[in-house]
Amino acid sequence: MIKHTKVRVILRLAGLFMWVISFTCAYSQGDTVYHVGLILPFQTETTSQAISDIVNAHDLFTANHVHFDDDAIMSLNFYQGLTAALNENNEHVKIDLHVYDNGDSDSLTTELLKKPELKKMDCIIGSASSSTARMVAEFCKADSIYNIQPFTPSKGLTGDNPFHIKLAPTIDAHIDNLFQSILDSFPDANIIIYTAKNERSMPLAERYDSLFKAYNATSTLRYQVSLVNSTDLALDSKKNGLAELINPDKPNVLIITSYDEPFIQSTLRTVVEKNKKDNIIVYGLPTWLGGDILRLDYINDLHTRISDAFYADTSKPGTLSFVAKYKAAFNAEPGRYAYLGYDVMSFMMHALKNYGRDFAAQVVSERFTGAGYKFDISRSMKNQTVNYYENTHINVFKVEDYQLKKVW
């Protein structure tokens, strides 16, 4: 019998997955029943085959080389965390949960949304990819169903939609929080906003610039701010390069608004090679630590700040309790998507218990603290009406000794 830890965990999931494929079940006690749909890319067919391959593997080597689709692993982890929240004692909320596999496919999602029972949902969670999430959001808007979106931060998913609750913070929320952390941590810094001149990077740099301008307009302590892009800097014969913008007598906050790894790598290398590193603090984007080519020594040596919505503080009793229950159930440490599933459902049950079906307008400006996420819900307005609701809570981390340390 195969007993390797990784394989044991997958085998433990096998029964769970086969139950997930298509079902409805009720959790907890109470008089009011809330119908909740969960639409995720469980990839039923390929995942079932992978589980079968592990169960029937002749040896450990073969079993450990069975591949699971990343979307399926994410979905299962999220679902495990969600059910952990549902299984906790709650005397006031009864959830009738409907789980659907949309395979991360637009065509499958289109067919799925034709199911009559979906129109009777009080809330739908998902989907995961931008295109399928957009389809679910518009379906919910048309039928006045609350749509919880914890995966896709895109601002373009939906609009004029007071039934959309975006729990995945937008890039604007990341920038706004990073900006505030600069004000709190570096009141006397020289600010350099450096960007590539393209449609993804330039608007982020301009947002930073506008935030600093608004701050300087009303504050007695004003920042020196330089907004430059790589194209204009290369054409400026009066400048020798980015190094000329560094002030040797002050802390320098270098904000690089780029997703492009070669551009980031080149910029960090230039800064490291031509400047003292002890007075330069780099601010990056949340995708950086997932990069394939970025040198961690550059990121570490430049005291880089990175933003992320996820932070599991295992010194907190609530987080410790969740981890213990999860390990007992699945023989594994929870990952970020398990935390997310747990916190999303805990948030929903809290909101339904306290405010009922029309909870969205009631949770505004009310922080919900979960095991790994915090939700600060606010209204995103458009023409004086609600465009959608969004979570704006972000943590800021410092890369220090090749580890992430929460600093804001």
The count of β-strands is 16
* Overall pLDDT: 89
CATH class of the largest domain: Alpha Beta
Distance between the termini: 48 Å
Largest sheet composition? 9 strands, mixed
Provide structural commentary:
This protein is α/β, with parallel strands linked by helices. The chain folds into two domains: 5-169 and 313-391, Response regulator (Rossmann fold), CATH 3.40.50; 172-308, Response regulator (Rossmann fold, 3-Layer(aba) Sandwich), CATH 3.40.50. It has helices at residues 5-20, 44-55, 60-64, 70-86, 106-112, 130-142, 171-185, 202-218, 230-235, 261-274, 296-301, 317-330, 336-355; strands at 23-27, 33-40, 94-101, 123-125, 146-149, 164-166, 190-195, 224-229, 252-257, 280-283, 305-308, 367-369, 374-382, 385-391, 395-400, 403-406. Strands 1-3-2-4-5-6-14-13-12 form a nine-stranded mixed sheet, sandwiched between helices. It has a four-stranded parallel sheet with strand order 8-7-9-10. Strand 9, helix 10 (261-274) and strand 10 form a beta-alpha-beta unit. Helix 1 packs across helix 2 and helix 4 packs parallel to helix 13. The relative contact order is 0.12.
